[in-house]
Amino acid sequence: MAYELETVQRGAKVRRDYKTYLPDRNRNGAMLEGLCDALSNHVLPGKDIRMNVYSEAVMMHTHITNGNIYTWEKNGFRKADGSPVAYADLWEPITKDIREKLKDRIAMFTGIPYEIRQRLDKMIKEPY
Domain total for the chain? Predict the structure, then answer.
């Protein structure tokens, strides 16, 4: 998963790219952990920030873009049949942070485009 934060400072757009790999869970869990970390540690409330998320996890893309996460939130992160939503422990803070910090300023993309992958790989190799 990769994510990109965009804000405007002194009239100019500023972009910061990030990349997340979390191998201690399966693929979907790792992608959700990465998004949870991004939202809780890099998106500040009250700031006019736009977030672009690139992920190979179609499940994450679908549930955020079609609004399932808000329906789950209303139902206590339970499905229509009463069973718990998979990864409810991660979906809950993600839903809250998207609603409170980003509102409608999040865009989800399936896959990481080549040019963004190159830019992120280069950034990771550079020392801080």
Answer: 1
